[in-house]
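4.2 Preliminary Data

To establish feasibility before requesting continued support, the project team ran the inverse folding procedure on a target of 327 residues. The structure was first converted into the token representation described in Section 3, and no sequence information of any kind was made available to the design step. The complete token record follows.
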């Protein structure tokens, strides 16, 4: 089969021919219809040392939509021909940038009633946004929200979720070039992080109260920015780094609360972790099917374009979603 492999010794993605993978016990073989490209795939050079046995045959690609064409021993809940969607395990080798992939049956979802390209665009970013806002922050119509990174995958889905749940004030940062896009996906107020005094603007928008909920989807020092945007007993979810409350002004006196979230950790935390992962995917897919959430600016790529696209993702702030679509 054709596949994109990662060569850790050269930090290079390569289109190659690989043997057809075989599903082990509890696994399925999936014919890949589509696979989303995500920053975690592109930045494999930052974490490949944590993956045991990574070599030049390693196929990345986490977000897969496709059809089951092979069943491993003990798989009973699924059958040949079922169309499925899943968020893969970054530490397993047979990912979705290929014609066929292998995945554990326990974290498969029924393919939602949307195209395979749209479905594959959602797990990493969309399910993360859902878990952050719904499972951790428990947003409601009574909340106000600040999102650091509104133009990215997680941020653009988070703004849509917040709008769907009736959050009236939805503030997001982005570059000036992406202002219109961020408004379109649900922000009521868009701030240029390069030009605006973001915290002063947040205070003005909220009448000096700050927001009740915040999400950092960027990293760097944006956790400090998001925490500083919070008002009394506000809560924040950090997606990129470990939270550091000692760096957040007035964190104790304001009674702030902080959460961390790693979507893929569901794969390695037993049955409970798997259930949380699947539940988020099912809930998000239901809103996707209902049209409450859309995938903005989706660009389909053929397999031969994936290596270049992954390297380009390291160098720029991607707007919209790139998805491998197999013929």
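Position-by-position output of the design step:
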């Amino acid at each position: 089969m054709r596949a994109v492999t990662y060569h850790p010794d050269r930090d290079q993605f390569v289109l190659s021919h690989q043997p057809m993978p075989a599903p082990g016990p509890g696994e399925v073989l999936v014919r890949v219809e589509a696979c989303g490209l995500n920053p975690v795939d592109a930045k494999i050079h930052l974490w490949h040392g944590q993956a045991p046995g990574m070599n030049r045959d390693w196929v990345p690609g986490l977000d897969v939509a496709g059809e089951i064409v092979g069943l491993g021993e003990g798989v009973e809940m699924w059958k040949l021909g079922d169309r499925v969607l899943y968020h893969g395990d970054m530490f397993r080798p047979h990912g979705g940038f290929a014609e066929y992939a292998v995945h554990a049956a326990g974290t498969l979802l029924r393919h939602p009633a949307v195209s395979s390209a749209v479905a594959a665009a959602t797990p990493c970013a969309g399910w993360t946004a859902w878990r952050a806002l719904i499972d951790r922050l428990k947003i409601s119509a009574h909340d106000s929200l600040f999102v650091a990174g509104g133009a990215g995958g997680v941020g653009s889905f988070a703004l849509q979720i917040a709008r769907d749940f009736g959050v009236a004030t939805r503030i997001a940062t982005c570059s000036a070039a992406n202002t219109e896009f961020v408004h379109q996906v649900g922000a009521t107020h868009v701030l240029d992080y390069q030009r605006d005094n973001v915290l002063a603007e947040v205070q003005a928008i909220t009448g000096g109260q700050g927001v009740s909920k915040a999400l950092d989807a960027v990293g760097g020092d944006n956790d400090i920015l998001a925490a500083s945007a919070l008002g009394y007993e506000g809560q924040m979810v950090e997606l990129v780094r470990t939270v550091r409350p000692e760096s957040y002004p007035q964190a104790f006196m304001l009674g702030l609360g902080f959460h961390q979230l790693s979507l893929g950790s569901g794969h390695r935390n037993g049955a409970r972790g798997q259930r949380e992962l699947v539940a988020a995917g099912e809930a998000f897919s239901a809103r996707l099917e209902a049209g409450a959430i859309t995938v903005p600016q989706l660009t389909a790529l053929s397999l031969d374009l994936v290596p270049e696209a992954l390297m380009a993702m390291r160098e720029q702030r991607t707007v919209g979603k790139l998805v491998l679509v197999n013929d």
